[in-house]
Amino acid sequence: MQSTNFAKRHFNPILNRCLVWAQTHEWRGKHRFYLWMSGHFPHKLIRYCVQERSFSVPISELCFWLERGPNNYYLEEFAPFCDLLNDLDKPFTLLDLGADIGTVSSLVASRCTNLSNIIAFEPNPNSFTVLEQNFSRFDVDVMALNSAVSDFNGKANLEADIDRANDHEGQIIKTDTGAIDVVRLDSWFDLNPHVRLCDIIVIKIDVEGQEQQVLGGAKIIISKVDKVIVLLEIHPDVLRASNISPEHLLNEAEKIRDFSWFVPAVNIGNKLDRARPFFEQFEEKQYDIIGISIPR
Length: 296
Description:
The protein is an alpha/beta fold. Helix content is 35%, strand content 27%. An eight-stranded mixed beta sheet has the order 5-4-3-10-11-14-12-13, sandwiched between helices. Strands 6-9-7-8 form a four-stranded mixed beta sheet. A two-stranded antiparallel sheet has the order 1-2.
């Protein structure tokens, strides 16, 4: 029944092809058209073909109109990230924390030949519905869980716009009577020993204010594997709301093991100078930064 209802959210094939063209090209009136379509069809999905598999994106999500579809999603950051992963000498597990509809997982699955499996966590039920269906088309071992990740096991409420097909900026508020499940990664893997985890893990963390808590709740997982690569979102607005700095997040990771940090959108070859504040080195805006572990 869920698959049938999900299929009804797509446009007919001819209109879908037109919408794919509209997203992936620049043309006069594109933004006005996006606003009109989002207002009239807020829960509809555009279906893409990604390496012969179907991948759906909400028509109302602006980033896919700005970035020309999911195949081109912020490639100034994710292309060098995937190039780095292709240089790994062993297969890796991707932990996609704050997976939304699976766009980053899709890019990694499409671009990285040594990806072994994906374990994704997404608390927003609207986003998770799309994530689950997108994952059903992957030809790699995938697992999707409808829960948030933090430093505790329990419940929370999600402050998100439920009228949107996917609000990937939702934040969790801890409460015993919450509707959202929250897991601590170390505890979750203890309770699920059958879940495969490679000697190399790649952790994408985009959890809207819970980044520090995620790291604190994953100390065992991060410390016990051979190598860890972290993709960590640095968002000034989220940091201010949480009353922390980029240095708080980097310090939390470095309590577990040593990391070298890079900013792929600026220059993947230059290591972050940890002796200077992050926003003294870079313009104050949103970044995804890469941390590469250095075995002790």
